[in-house]
Specification:
The chain has 229 residues and is of the alpha/beta class. It is 32% helix and 25% strand. The chain has seven helices and eleven strands. The strands form three sheets. Strands 5-4-1-6-10-7-11 form a seven-stranded mixed sheet, sandwiched between helices. A two-stranded antiparallel sheet has the order 2-3. A two-stranded antiparallel ribbon has the order 8-9. The chain binds cytidine-5'-monophosphate.
Amino acid sequence: MHSQQKVGAVIVAAGSGERMGGGDKLTALLSGEPVISRVVRTFENCRLISRIVLVLSEANLERGRQLATAGGWSKVSDICPGGRRRQDSVVAGLKRLPDCAWVVVHDGARPLLSEDLIRRGLRAAEATGAAAAAVPVTDTIKVAGDDMLVRETLPRRELWAVQTPQVFRRDILTGAYNNLGDDVVTDDAAAVERSGQRVKLYMGAYDNIKITTPGDLALAEALLKEHGR
Ligand code: C5P
């Protein structure tokens, strides 16, 4: 990455949060701070990031704007509505970063990311133009059908649990999503893989968890305490 090339961040937080049991993930407090504020703060503090687009559900747009004002988020250039699927939300955010050569996509539901994870992602993406944070799986992973009968046990040493940040040259990611059509992907790297481009994995962090259920919030709180952050 050339030092003069701009890097934009797309933070997607427009999910319905169905699995939170009624609580709102966006504004749920983690060490007294809304989850999304913690995420944005990490990107604000990272010197490699020029601009941030925050993608929220329609219902949360106003709340998001209030948090931006209260937090003095100087890099947040857009707060825009997301779409039905995660990939629609990413595409909506990407459209707002036409001047950035590189984009870092991150789940708003992963508040424990570090600046280091962003920096290492940008470095990892240099050669291929696409990189995703990932950790080796610790469980054995099996493939089963609807009947719950095992079809296959995958070799664990080749398996990685993929996280965000995911870092891309903007033209590669935009092209991949343009070519995707109606196919559904659960992460951005998958769109790029399908377009035939190489994606590099780099070491993520086991504590970079995604807050999905109320239990995850308690776990994130415990992880924060443990690290004294
Ligand atoms: O649903 P999933 O766990 O993959 O969500 C990962 C991230 O994508 C979350 O931060 C969620 O808010 C976001 N998302 C989104 N728009 C959607 C669905 C998910 O921004 N339609």
